[in-house]
Structure formats: structure tokens, C-alpha cells
Amino acid sequence: MNRKLHVKKGDMVFVNAGEYKGKQGKVLEVLVKQERAIVEGVNIISRHTKPNAKHPQGGIIKKEAPVHISNLMLVDPASGKPTRIGRRENESGKLVRYSKKSGEEIK
User: What is the mean pLDDT for each group of 10 consecutive residues in the chain (107 residues)?
Assistant: First the structure.
């Protein structure tokens, strides 16, 4: 199942459920098949690693774990508040995302 998601890499999102409810962050990566996204500063886990080339010391490394996209809302660029997303064609006939709150197109 390959469906369009309402979030893309680089978007500012608001977490509306879970332990990090109320936090905002930038989407670092979108995992389309699992319908999850990795958000900067959200869902931090401790990873115990052995020494390797990237981390010669090894030890405990804090990193972001994926969050389900149903728990994320895009932040409206105009108002800075969370908004739902719709899709419509623009003047050139291309399908674009728009904010349901302000009606503005999202780049």
C-alpha cells in the first residue's frame, strides 16, 4: 500500500498524542511503508552501542525513534498553529498541499 502522506521531510510538525504531546519539531525522515516519521527532539531513546568506526567509545547514544504519522499535524506556515492538510490543483494543474485553517498553499 503506497499512499500519499500529509508530512514531508523538512516540515515543521506538532505532536498531538503520546508522551511528547504538545512538542514541535522538524521532520528528519519519513518512513512511508511503516507510516512513521522521525521528528527532531521527539521520542528520544537510549541506544547501547559497541565501539565502532562512527562511535569509537561506544556507550549509550541518545537518538530519535520513529513516531506514527497519525500523531503528527503540520504547523501552518502563516499562523504557526497546527492545521489539517488538504490537496487541490493549483493554476498549473499540479496537485499541492494546502492548509485547511488558512487556505494557504504549503510549499
Answer: 84 95 96 95 95 92 95 92 93 91 88
Q: Alpha-carbon Rg of the chain, whole angstroms?
A: 17
**Paired strand residues for 17:** none
**What would the grid cell of residue 72 be?**
503528527
Residue 16 burial (10 A CB sphere; 0-12, 13-18, 19+): middle
pLDDT for the residue numbered 59 = 94
Contacting residues for 20 by C-beta, under 8 A, at least 6 apart: 42, 43, 67
∠ CA(70), CA(35), CA(22), 5° rounding?
A: 35
pLDDT computed for residue 4 by the predictor: 84
What is the helix (H) or strand (E) element at residue 33, kind and residue range?
none
DSSP reduced 3-state for 70: helix
| pTM (two decimals) | 0.83
C-alpha cell at 44: 528520544
